[in-house]
Give the backbone structure.
Amino acid sequence: MPWNDKIECMPESELRNFQLEKLRETVAWAYERVPFYKQKFDEKGVRPDNIRHIEDIAKLPFTVKNDLRDNYPFGLCAVPMSEVVRVHASSGTTGKPITGPYTRGDMDCWGECMARNLWSAGIRPGDIVQNAYGYGLFTGGLGFHEGISRIGCVELPTSSGLTLRQVTLMQDFKVTALCCTPSYALTIEEQADEMGIDIRNLPLRVGVFGAEPWTPGMRKEIEERMGIKAMEAYGLTEIGGPGVSFDCDAQEGLHINEDHYLAEVLDPDTLEPIPLGEKGELVFTSLQRRAMPMIRYRTKDITRLYRDKCSCGRTLIRMDKISGRTDDMLIISGVNVFPSQIESLLLDIPEVEPQYVLVVRKKGHLDHLTVRVEAKREVYDIGPDKEAEVEKKIQDHIKGMLGIAVTVRLVEPKLIQRSEGKAKRILDERPKS
Ligand code: DLL
């Protein structure tokens, strides 16, 4: 049974009506209170009362990351500061951070969305939940915190880092659920292994992982190494943090909290809608946020949407696991490649660890990719011939599956930097233009 079956299992037509009502409210809210949106709407010649059907969303302007940067810190805020009770921010790699203000009501909605996510992962009162997402400006730690307290289970707010202590607490407190990034889950498992602790023998039962891309192969790897069920959370600071979508027992896509987020998938070049079931850029409009309503926010995340019936009974639309970001796409020998494709192929190779970095350099006019991946100790014990054999095996596998020539370099165990949050998988050494 879902956390909120009235919403999560609502018949599609009812849900669409609910969304339309909330969309109209949000559009009017943004138009009347945020000068940025008023100007954008006016430029497009659209007014809130032009939104009569859900499909009318196509008339609305888009919002992109730079709009948030240009209006840093609170230019897109629709309420006075006296109504804001929390601000999160994402650091980003370049430029100014993105800020995400919340009203008391927004916090309440966030708790609801996160409770659905954790409940769907089988977390119940009595569970001891280790929350190893970073606490602070990042939405992960405190976002999960909202959901954990909403359900009423025991929260262990460890935040990220101090991995040795994470393992000790996990063992001593008989932790049953872990929340962190998938790459940090691997770091924790490795630390436990070094301490002679097999996490598979601990009471830990489930993990709720997200905030970074991870392939189905990585999910399987984590499940096997830790002896748990690995569930997922997706979200982004710009539209409210985690709690946007989550997977269920079926693990066939992530259900979007559609009463809060209206999703579209568009062709990133033409910005035309893409039919259900086909891949494109995910675009979200918030439906209940008051502090910072977001109209058609272009996430750059690539996925597809589908509305087929889910065996879990939820009617909420599903999105695929994110397969990449439009800005992480590499063009190698004329072929478009996403880091996740390389990750999937590396996970097919038993001689290496799921620890890798993709180094992109310019070679003439073309981009060249070097895959640095950590070999298991046994490979080094056998000697240099074995190393060369494994490198060639991976190169051939990538060539065979993706048709691209890459260089593979094995790295000795433990040399790839371990993640405590979002793993940095791409090292872009191309000259900046
Ligand atoms: O990462 C929010 C979050 C926290 C989600 C904890 C899940 C769990 P940002 O730091 O703003 O917010 O980063 C958002 O991270 O646009 C995606 O590219 C990526 N991302 C988030 N969740 C997933 C996921 C948080 N499950 C950006 N799979 C998003 C793949 C994800 N990518």
